[in-house]
Amino acid sequence: QVQLVESGGGLVQAGGSLRLSCAASGRTFSSYTMGWFRQAPGKEREFVAAISRSGGSTYYADSVKGRFTISRDRAKNTVYLQMNSLNPEDTAVYYCNKDPPIRDYWGQGTQVTVSS
């Protein structure tokens, strides 16, 4: 059974940093483009960042470009999201998934709360 487990969220002050991790089990995701997505209260889930299977190409939403960095460790079947210069608008539950996402792969996500 495929499982994606996100971790690393928490409460941080504006301007702070967090590093999220997404560990995959049940199958290897090394051959897929992987992405991070987020859902803020009352809003639709949105794309945040993606990384190609080789790690050589990355893609970002305009709202996080220059502040967030996506990376992956194929040997560990893990994807990371380094988030710097956080602001309250980044408050959301963060999820990882294939990009484009597969409905059955959504995990529980990890909560990120940025205080002003």
Largest sheet: 6 strands, mixed
Biggest sheet: strand arrangement: 2-10-9-4-5-6
Please report the distance between the alpha carbons of the first and last residues.
Answer: 40 Å
Strand content: over 45%
Gyration radius, to the nearest Å? 13 Å
Give the proportion of residues in helices.
Answer: under 10%
Number of helices, where a helix is a run of at least 4 consecutive DSSP H or I residues: 0
Segments where pLDDT lies below 50 for 5+ residues?
none
Q: Which series of helices and strands comes N to C?
A: EEEEEEEEEE
Arithmetic mean pLDDT = 95
Q: What is the 3D form? A: globular
Annotation, overall tally of beta strands = 10
The computed structural class is mainly beta
Structure report:
The protein has 116 residues and is mainly β. It contains no helices and ten strands. The chain has a six-stranded mixed β-sheet, with no helix packed on it. A four-stranded antiparallel β-sheet has the order 1-3-8-7, with no helix packed on it. It starts with a strand and ends with a strand. The mean pLDDT is 95.
Summarize this structure briefly:
The chain is mainly beta.
